[in-house]
């Protein structure tokens, strides 16, 4: 297996400053405002700004004519008040002179429509011309800032693949053929065999004949080809980014290099992230419109990002309501922004930049509200940011070098499994969506749950649930069986290991490579499209319910117990959930999907039989989460409720000013407390 040891959910960023600040857009403000900004933002605790991701036109107004003055002056002014700068390569918005001279750099969607200048991300990562200009602007900026002590690091581009990630331009087609030839070692027969081109007479004789797959022309395309196309998109953007990273590292090896993800068709546990120092992430919880669902959904996103490579830098965080085109978010209420920011930190952020310094008066995001309003009068959002700034200045540095604790893991975010599924869904939800339901079922009951990739360090986990990773890598088996032998509880959802990593169905009896570990055979499976019409009742422990989406009738091996049984129709009496003891642990196989009907029952059952670690006993709506290193534990208590609540906490030192009386803290509405416990070697 490829060495991915570097990318672990337990890894921290290695930053030695906890950065707090915002993106900053000097190109949007006149001189009068710009001169006052450094002091205004320093007073709110800023120690960093991020700049230039959309400013290519300012830096190189004409081909080859560079003008760094606006950024030089801004970096200098902010530097004078102790605020450092993260710069960005500005390749998300190439200037008009470039697209005018080279319209061939524009991306083309799967309907053949060419993108245009006028919004952003319109250029192709596969275009040799665009790549050359990307290297050129990166080199010019890197050279200019190499010795500037106020520039501490870089963000590549901006949110690669955030709007759409496909590309069918002529450059993309050529690169596709290059990619395929590399992947299949120049042997077209290998492609034919791997993709199963015998089906529907797809046999190719040359790589140049292979089209990029487009939707429904006239009907479904080959799922293996679709998956390889997603691999190709990842390969292309990784190569594009690497060219920038190499230039930056050569100019100044002390700079950190990151990227603000996490969007589609990029393998964030792959080379893309290995080329960076750590991942960055943009967190906008108010895209989750229902305030009751928001904490669980935000927690899942943050845990998912951490599962890619560990702690991360939040390069953009919601600070006001976001508004664009046809939507406008709820305005965070007083205290909500601070709470959300601490929540992101509790879940692994090693730095926090609030988007954005001030609402812009023009452009597609003129209602994307920031810390300051259009009129630049500091109001409650600024005051709240200043409180947060003060707290972070004191506590942030102590959190660097700590990892986020979790003892229940969900294996659900895997690039190949997700994209393979996407290429042929059968109308079933993808592993990432299923992971959300599994996460929520534990999170809402106060368990210490997160997301962990099967390749990752599983040592701190008591329980690992595999959320229907149908495209399962056989190389994960060894890790999973070691985890179980040492005492872990593994819970495998239906359809896991039913396909290979090329998106073809495995020839083995299911659950394929997991059959011996789980000690079970899948005798029959089926989709449940209208479970209310032909209900299949399932009983587990003290509960029975009608399953949905999918059923599997199981046959246990000798020594495997049947713990759940089908109760109705032709399945009556057959095994639905099995359990096998292996070493010191157990393997459950669940013959249905982890839906929101099924998942709470599974949690109940696991709790009942004593397979779950303790619930953290706070009242509903108060989240508890820990960051730790070898000697200290930081326990975060986050009140997502609109009213004050009193919570029990472990004895330790209260760090955010709450009085700790008899191990109880009173948390205000949307309040956050942190308790430090010294001398605890959490693992
Ligand atoms: C992010 C993006 C920013 C800005 C923000 C608000 O996704 O990186 O440039 O667009 O959203 O829409």
Q: Would you mind describing this structure in some detail?
A:
The strands form six sheets. The chain has a nine-stranded parallel beta sheet with strand order 5-4-3-2-1-11-8-7-6. Among the domains are: 1-14 and 282-401, no CATH class; 408-608, Class I glutamine amidotransferase (GATase) domain (Rossmann fold); 622-678, Golgi alpha-mannosidase II (Immunoglobulin-like, Sandwich). The chain is globular and about 80 Å long. It starts with 18 loop residues before the first strand and ends in a 5-residue tail after the last strand. α1 packs parallel to α3, α5 (128-145) packs parallel to α8 and α10 crosses α14 (431-443). Helix content is 30%, strand content 21%. It has 17 helices and 29 strands. It is an alpha/beta fold and 683 residues long. It binds beta-D-galactopyranose. It comes from Pelagicoccus albus.
Q: Are any ligands bound, and if so which? A: beta-D-galactopyranose
Strand order of the largest sheet: 5-4-3-2-1-11-8-7-6
CATH superfamily of the domain at 408-608: Class I glutamine amidotransferase (GATase) domain
**CATH topology group of the domain at 408-608:** Rossmann fold
Helix content class:
25-40%
Anisotropy-based shape: globular
Mind telling me the C-alpha Rg? 26 Å
Structural class: alpha/beta
CATH class of the domain at 408-608: Alpha Beta
Number of distinct beta strands: 29
Note the quaternary state here.
single chain
Low-pLDDT stretches are: 1-5
The CATH architecture name of the domain at 408-608 reads 3-Layer(aba) Sandwich
**What portion of the residues fall into strands of 2 or more residues?**
15-25%
Mean pLDDT: 96
The count of helical stretches stands at 17
């Amino acid at each position: 297996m490829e060495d991915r040891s570097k990318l672990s959910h337990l890894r921290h960023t290695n930053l030695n400053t906890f950065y707090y600040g915002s993106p900053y857009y000097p190109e949007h403000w006149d001189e009068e405002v710009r001169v006052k900004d450094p002091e205004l933002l320093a007073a709110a605790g800023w120690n960093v700004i991020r700049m230039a991701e959309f400013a290519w036109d300012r830096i190189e107004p004409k081909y080859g004519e560079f003008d760094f003055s606006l950024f030089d002056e801004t970096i200098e002014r902010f530097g004078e008040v102790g605020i450092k700068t993260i710069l960005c390569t500005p390749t998300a918005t190439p200037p008009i002179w470039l697209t005018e001279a080279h319209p061939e750099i524009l991306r083309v969607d799967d309907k053949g429509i060419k993108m245009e200048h006028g919004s952003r991300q319109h250029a192709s990562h596969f275009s040799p011309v665009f790549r050359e200009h990307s290297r050129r602007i990166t080199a010019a900026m890197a050279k200019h800032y190499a010795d500037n002590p106020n520039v501490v690091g870089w963000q590549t581009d901006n949110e690669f693949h955030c709007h759409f990630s496909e590309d069918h331009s002529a450059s993309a087609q050529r690169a596709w053929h290059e990619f395929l030839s590399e992947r299949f070692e120049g042997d077209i027969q290998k492609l034919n065999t791997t993709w199963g081109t015998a089906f529907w007479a797809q046999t190719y004789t040359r790589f140049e004949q292979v089209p990029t797959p487009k939707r429904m022309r006239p009907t479904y395309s080959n799922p293996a080809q679709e998956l390889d196309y997603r691999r190709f998109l990842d390969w292309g953007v990784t190569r594009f980014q690497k060219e920038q990273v190499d230039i930056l590292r050569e100019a100044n090896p002390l700079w950190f290099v990151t990227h603000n993800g996490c969007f589609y068709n990029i393998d964030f546990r792959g080379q893309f992230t290995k080329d960076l120092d750590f991942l960055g992430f943009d967190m906008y919880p108010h895209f989750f419109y229902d305030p009751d669902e928001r904490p669980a959904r935000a927690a899942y996103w943050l845990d998912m990002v951490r599962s890619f490579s560990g702690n991360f830098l939040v390069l953009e965080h919601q600070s006001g309501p976001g508004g664009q085109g046809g939507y406008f978010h709820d305005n965070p209420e007083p205290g909500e922004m601070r709470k959300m920011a601490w929540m992101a930190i509790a879940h692994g952020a090693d730095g926090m930049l609030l988007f954005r310094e001030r609402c812009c008066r023009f452009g597609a995001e003129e209602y994307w509200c920031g810390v300051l309003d259009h009129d630049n009068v500091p109001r409650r959002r600024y005051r709240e940011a200043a409180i947060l700034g003060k707290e972070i200045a004191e506590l942030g540095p102590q959190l660097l070098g700590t990892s986020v604790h979790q003892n229940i893991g969900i294996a659900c975010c895997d690039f190949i499994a997700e994209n393979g599924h996407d290429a042929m869904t059968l109308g079933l939800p993808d592993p990432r969506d299923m992971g959300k339901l599994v996460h929520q079922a534990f999170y809402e009951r106060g368990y210490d749950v997160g997301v962990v990739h099967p390749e990752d360090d599983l040592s701190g986990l008591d329980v690992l649930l595999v959320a229907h990773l149908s495209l399962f890598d056989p190389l994960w088996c060894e890790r999973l069986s070691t985890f179980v032998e040492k005492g872990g509880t593994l819970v495998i959802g239906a359809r896991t290991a039913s396909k290979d990593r090329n998106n073809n169905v495995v020839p083995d009896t299911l659950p394929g490579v997991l059959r011996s570990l789980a000690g079970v055979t899948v005798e029959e499976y089926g989709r449940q499209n209208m479970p209310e019409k032909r209900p299949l009742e399932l009983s587990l422990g003290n509960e029975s319910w009608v399953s949905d989406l999918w059923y599997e009738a199981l046959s246990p091996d000798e020594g495997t117990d049947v713990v759940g049984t089908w109760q109705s129709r032709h399945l009556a009496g057959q095994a639905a959930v099995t359990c096998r003891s292996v070493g010191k642990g157990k393997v459950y196989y669940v013959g249905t999907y982890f839906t929101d009907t099924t998942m709470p029952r599974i949690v109940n059952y696991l709790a009942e039989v004593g397979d779950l670690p303790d619930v953290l006993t706070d009242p509903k709506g108060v989240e508890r989460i820990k960051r730790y290193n070898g000697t200290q534990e930081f326990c975060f208590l986050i009140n997502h409720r609109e009213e004050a609540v009193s919570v029990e906490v472990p004895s330790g030192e209260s760090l955010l000013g709450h009085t700790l009386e008899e191990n109880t803290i009173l948390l205000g509405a949307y309040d956050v407390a942190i308790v430090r416990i010294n001398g605890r070697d959490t693992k």
